[in-house]
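Each field is set out as follows.
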Amino acid sequence: MTETRDVAVVGGGAAGLSAALVLSRARRTVTVVDAGEPRNAPAAHMHNYLGRDGTPPGEFLAIGRKEAESYGARIVDARVTGIERNGADGAFRLLLDDGAELWARRIILATGLRDELADIPGLREGWGDYVLHCPYCHGYEVRDRPIGVLGTGPHAVRLALMLKKWSADLVYFPHGQEVTGEDRLRLEARGVQVVEGGIRGLVAGGAGLTGVELDSGAVVPREAVFAPSTMRPSGELLDGLGCARDADGSAATDPMGRTSVPGVWAAGVVVDPMAQVIAAAAMGSRAASAVDHDLIEEEVEQAVSEYRR
């Protein structure tokens, strides 16, 4: 068997790198395996992270990698394709897509999620630029501009009601979703215009979004749109290990990130899809301290057993 690391962190985003930083500073041997597919890669800037507000996501991750590596963490650019457990000593064997393998005493899954977008032409192309999903992340950047909210998710009406304080020029496009009488009353009272009809696509050019084209051919001028996505936590490794999941597919954990499988923790948006970057980083830090305490307990028990012998 090759060297067994104390902890393997799967995923090199905010949660994973934060966990690696805490653990490497605690003098644990840590390896981060990162597939290089951060969810916020299309965004130009990251916001609401105290001390790093406005930092490009790639730059933020590069800083995090450098910090973790400065304390001895290893970072491997690869994808984990499977995780197995050794019945003899309980260590985990991680299989990587480059044919390599890694052994670890504990696992932290920080594998993130993927956004599934509605089948509307132009939505994917503008994602993270003029197609947005989080008002707290991007609302300020499009303040006082003509904004549209697309009915592409179950919380679209609520999103439209929220965004009114960022822009007085707000249009809600149900796109076939039913608008109840109560919702219509709330939208009208809030000053949100409702434009019926299906959406044919987004109209954009070199300067960005110019409008939302309806099935009728009419184009409603807009400079940005918010489109709720379906958030799918990355669950392949969770399922492979037998970790319980919540109703929305997220990893089911205790407050410290411990999953239903001994030796396995989870952190970040794979646990809470609504977590912003700063919250994901905090979850990684919390899970790391829990893992360290768990390792200490195991080491103390071993030391006592050896001492008695």
Notes: The helical segments are 14-25, 57-70, 123-126, 135-138, 156-163, 181-190, 236-241, 277-308.
